[in-house]
Model the fold of this input.
Amino acid sequence: MNKITNKVSILLILAGVLACQPKGPATVTTSDAAGKVYVAPGQYDEFYNIVSGGFNGQIGVYGIPSGRLFRILPVFAVSPESGYGFSEETKPMLNTSHGFVPWDDLHHIALSTTKGEHDGRWAFANGNNTPRVARVSFESFRTEEILEIPNSGGNHSSPFITENTEYLVAGTRFSIPMANKDVPIDSYKENFKGSISFIKVDQESGRMNIAFQLRTPGFNYDLSRAGKGPSHGWFFFSCYNTEQAHTLLEVNASQRDKDFIMAINWKKAEEYIAQGKGRVEKAKYAHNVYDEKTHMATSTIKEEVVVLDIKDFPDIAYFIPCPKSPHGCDVDPSGEYIVGSGKLAAMMPVFSFTKLQNAIANKTYDGDFDGIPVIKYEAALHGEVKKPGLGPLHTEFDEKGNAYTSFFVSSEIVKWNVKTLEVLDRVPTYYSIGHLSVPGGPTSKPHGKYVIAYNKITKDRYLPTGPELTQSAQLYDISGDKMQLLLDFPTVGEPHYAEAIPASLIREKSRKIYKIEENENPYAAKGEAQARVERKGNEIHVYMTAIRSHLTPDNIEGVNVGDEVYFHVTNLEQDWDVPHGFAIKGALNAEILIMPGETQTLKWKPQQPGVVPFYCTDFCSALHQEMSGYIRISAAGVKTPLKFSTGTFE
Amino acid sequence: MKKLQPISRLALAVSAVLMVSAFFVPLWRILMWAPQYPEGLEMKIWIDTITGDVRTISALNHYIGMKHIEVEMFPEFTYMKYIVMGIMAIGFIAAAIAKRWALYAFALILTMAGIAALVDFYLWGYDYGHNLDPKAPIIIPGMSYQPPLMGTKILLNFTAFSGPDIGGWLFVLAAILVFAAIFYEIYFQRKKI
Done:
């Protein structure tokens, strides 16, 4: 009898236990977070955050700690808002060997450094899809240069830079047959090669050119970092798909327990190039430069590159085994430690540059791959971070000897000590962090203070906006022992890598206007007296000026259907923050925004006769609504006399 | 053998009737949470099918080499409904016979069926969690992913919970009714003596 009551009560208890299911992960809230991110109206943020836009092809400029978005800089994507890629002056910026490519996938940012520290000169960015690198000026916050990368199948391990901005690199994510060879896809092992371009940066102008290309085994080259301090002169690249698979990489490129980190002695490569040992190969690629004086871009097609095959030069390249499909490959501020983040591995190896050098000196090799020595794993290993989390991707560093690694699968940031390899703290991210950024994190002198997470999934963090949700970043305070979540802020595009730099390094040199007397655009009208309309065959050139609150000329006649009308608009203002815009009805391209002292050109082809208005699109003054004009379009063949005026009534 | 009290016969009949629910509501559920899935993923096991976020769960689990969950994987779904119908029939027959041995027999059958179901579920879970594709992208040495039989278990970035759903609870209630009837019968008889 007792037994039976027991049975019943056991059932009831069981029912009780099963009724309390665990709750989902708890949300983190902190009480003093608001004060730490509040930047009072009219006050400035402490850091600029230069954030890649991923598939929007742009760069977002945010303030830290407020998370406020200041500007979206068009780099590899056309911007109808500013006219970038639509104005005649900027169209050449997006020229490539394939023609005009109006979009790209911008993943990584590299800010220029001197002696390993931020110097606030330029930001570099990669175009992943049609391989390109870009340089953005911190004076104008504009894209000044785009260089196409030949022999590349996707420019992912780019544009990481050396400590004095001597070089930036462009490593191919997808290996391909060189020189556009037509071969069967399943001849991958035989015909496909990797290619790593070293792009020399002119220290004065910032101009880029491909100094040389390394020909490497056919793998996927994922990410990269330059050595610094003692390891200056070396570059490290994570390699996956050392299985050399060409189909279902999800499975076939995940079979080997260890892939590689490729260590490149670029100083040695530089020497070989100086000795003339590089071989010149034919390659077609575009080099586009925007001139600040003429306000015009020019595109030049280059014809050749200098190539070194790493297997012909035994002391340039070494492979360090790294588990498993490494993604991030990050060098600590001292330059001694290299962190490999095997995205499928259950631990994280940290390699020592000193040990690597010893292993090379003593030839502590574990055979070779394609003629390249493979260093014995243990010989280069400083140690392993045990059970750090799941899916390690990227590591940034603070000034106190700590590392911060992002974990995609377990959706967290893990703080650990670089020397002791001890895990110190972990915080959840919402959700599935990709890259992360500590101000100055990749430099020799991190500024610390914050770590910013760039997440891949936002899900329930913001008000829903249909199937497509906002992307987001999260700001954490790292000044104490424990990381503390301060702020979620939405980002545009999909943020990949980003860097944060003290505002003091950039703010003062930000350009306010272009001086009108320095305007060398051949189509500039540097005063209303120069405003005019000229016909050259079926081209109509309107040399137009804009100043508060009128356009000159604002009445134009004598244009026919079939003509091509070029509106060269010069903004005569010399005052900060007075851009003018120009738009005309029926334009098949976009508007243009013209900064003070600048000239930009919008091409327009009238399709039908009539009188067409045009106007200023950027609210410039109290009489902005009056800033407009008319162009009369006559039918093809009608001989209306060419006339133009402003403020005169006949 | 003693004849059953009317109330016990009623309990037997109600117990059998309760099992009709198996054809209309889910019997078991598995819930999973991950940092990226704070709202949870759910899998419901019915008498002849599986519903819920099965596709999402399979898509996530393939990284670690777990099988794609398909209804066809479970032969149980083809015959489970007949077993339940059989048990129900036995319940009604026992109520009709109205003998204590029939009550005991039914309780025994019910208990055995419950245990068999759990063992079957355990064996499937063991195979699902251990029999992994050796070519899986993520292989963590020594790690297996058997879902919990009942209760909560942490598996990598997922917290998994397994337990009865409405149908399962109704089965538990059916069993309680039967055991309550046994308890009542024994208690009633002793009082009479």
Q: What stands out?
A: The longest strand of chain A covers residues 296-309. Chain A has a mean pLDDT of 94. Chain A is about 10% helix and 45% strand.
